Amino acid sequence: MLAPGALAATAALVAMWPFTSVLAPGAWSLTVLTLVVAVVGTGMIVRHLLRRRAGWFRDATALLVQLVVAIAVLTLLVAGDTALFGIIPTSSSLTLFGALGAAAVEAIVFGSAPLDASPGLTAAMGAGFAVVAIVLDHLVAHRSAVLAIVVTGVVGAVPMIVTLGDTNVVWFVLFGVFALVLFRYTALQHPESPRRSSTSLAVAVGAAALVTTVAIAPALPVATNLAGTGVGVTVDASLRLGDDLRQPNPVEVLTVAAKGETAPYLRLTTLSRFDGRVWQPDDGELQSQEDGFGAPEWGEGIATEEQNTSIRILRMSSSWLPVPYPATAVQGLSASWRVSPDNRTLFSRSADAVGNDYTVSSTRLIPTLEQIRAIDAAEPTVDPDAEPVELPAIIADLAAEVTADETTDYDRLVTLQNWFRAQFAYSLETPVEEGFDGTGAEAVAQFLETRSGYCVHFAGAFALMAESLGMQVRIVVGYLPGSLSDEKRGTESVFSVTSDQLHSWPEVLFPGVGWVPFEPTASLGVPTAFRAGVTQSGGPGSPSTPAPTTAPRAEETSGPEVDRGDAANSPTGADDLRRLDPTPVVFTALGAVLLLLLPALIRFAERRTRLGRARRGDPAAAWAELRDTLIDLQLPVTDADTPRVRASGLVRENNVDPAALRRLTDAVEQANYARSGEVASDLAEPLRTVLTQLRDSVDRPTRMRAALLPRSLYAPRAAEPGVTV
Q: What is the C-alpha to C-alpha distance for residues 251 and 496, in angstroms, rounded to an integer?
């Protein structure tokens, strides 16, 4: 019982290995390993306890218990806090699994490899490999080596096929070694059966899998978004936004319901630690929603206005939920979402953003120009354990030069903001073409020289320049307000936020006011600018002056203008429709057909090998091929019959040529009973004659099933009396 279980677990882990190239390290691998061990171990225990019961009863019981254990373990690992005793799913657990499944689908369809190890993908990988482990466990237990190897190879080849990646040579070697070990184990279970070409069959399996991956995969544009061209709705705590913004067809990721004609910026998380290469996300303490979002950062003298924002996540997968700043309360979320009071954001280690519908209460801060000018920005915090970061001189030099004429921190920041918006250009392609599409100090220096980039470069450069002026700064990752739609929710307007409105912007801390955001990115939104405390009316009936705000607002532009080709210039009508490229459909169909034909290809390779041996006078190979053909054609095969008795039945019932069949039976009997070592003559010709006549003796559907789904590949190998060659 131990050997089949160990082989089944090994097969599942061999199939899992290639997925490490498309999924970032995380909890998913431990989840898969735990489920594989639990499922296979359960099968071993059940079969041992029921070893004296009927085979069908033992198998059915093992399958049922394995499914129960898999569900319990997956629930414990993924949704334990929603389950009864941590292992029995409740309605809340099912709701969570539904949301995680939807998040996993979105991440796979819209993400870019390597995908982040999100809770949704962890749950999906665990459930998927639990099923794979159960299937492999039963195939190995029944010694169906060929089918077990086919399942292992097909599952393992998926990452290479869908990502169009390079062939994983190491995995193919490991897969080949496992195939030989499994064939050897299966052969040892039936030492009395005819010698079978296990090595040749293993080579045929490996060759077929190699053809599938090497020949078809490079030309197979399936799920190309996993290869880095997806629409980008999987958001992590980083500034890797370039691929998300450059995708050609943005999709709606969330909707926002708010009063008025504009919606607030939405933040996911903040980054305030810079090591010279990347900005690291803040990792402060988390607390429950009931404990609130923390004490106000603003003083009593700052005017405020309360507002509510309803957010519905459609196609965004993330461990963070978008919220306006500064959030003060939230409704409509499960307890798995926790509050980070340091940056007033929402984070979860087990839930996913997709599918959530919630309402956030926030405070709109309205300081006057005089108030903000009277406050000095907070000084940068210094981590004594961190290594000092040496920045290129251009960063501090330009910051001092641009702000030389200003006397207050706020005026310096506004001047710096306006300098970026006036002297720089927004471009998604320039950073790629010039080789500085990153967040490091050297990339910022090159951006300041080139003066062209997108939000990541504007925010990073502004932050480092403000810090060089002695101010505490951080970068926010979130979304622009979106576009006003025709939909209404009661008295609230609904705004649509698309994937290309993913954004980043800098914030500077002003004690007594809080974190004040700025909008340096050229052509996006409206720059931050506070108004004087006393405004003059332009006369009766004139519009009132807009109230000042600490949040950037996007009244005129809500997203970057991205070149979409000629779509905007094409005439209205049928020509606006994207033309379907038939290449992906053709190659996808070819790949599917090849996988479906894999059993037939394996059987064909086995038949060719045996015919070659029969041509050299090997009666065992000829008789083994005759027996497997009978199994494939669903003709009676009785191991109690001798070769001569079986031959008589075939001549009588299937009109097989007696002379050709006699040559085969004589060769088998001579090999088994004759004293001389005389080698039989060429047996390939009579064998082909017999096989052809057997196929002609059955109807067309049976012949088709025998060719496409040969039963001999998975039928039990019983002893063959009278054939001991």
A: 10
